[in-house]
Amino acid sequence: MPSSPSTTPNIIFIKLGGSLITDKTQPRTPRLDVIARMAQEIRAALDANSNLRIVLGHGSGSFGHIPAKHYGTRQGVNSPEGWRGFAEVWHEAAALNHIVMDALHQVGLPAVSFPPSGAVTAFRGSVTHWNLSPLRAALEAGLLPVVCGDVVFDEILGGTILSTEDLFSYLAGKLNPQRILLAGLDAGVWADYPHCEQLIPKIDPQNWAMIAPALSGSAATDVTGGMAGKVDLMLKLVAQFPGLEVFIFSGERPGNLQAALLGEALGTNITAIPAK
Question: Could you give the CA distance from residue 188 to residue 71 in angstroms, rounded to a whole number?
Answer without folding.
Answer: 31
